[in-house]
What does this fold into?
Amino acid sequence: MKALLVLALSTFCVSAMAEEVTTDVAEQIPVEHYTYSQQLDIAKVLSMSEIPNVCEVVPARMTYEDSTGKKHILEYRVMGNGCSNG
It folds into this structure.
């Protein structure tokens, strides 16, 4: 009886882990590269990458949802935070 219970629990755990892996694979979102002519539909910003403390143009990423609820990752270029004004 104990062996049957262990077998049932292990089957449940394996199937739960397999479901989690397929969800993570489906969650991978292609990175879009921003151009100035692009029309953006940003309803909600989910996250933004940190801007490094350098004095040069660096890539940055923003993850957002559009008005239909679809997630996007947008990569764009931004000036770093390490420049002084003098």
About this structure: Confidence is low (pLDDT under 50) at residues 18-23. The first helix runs from residue 2 to 27.
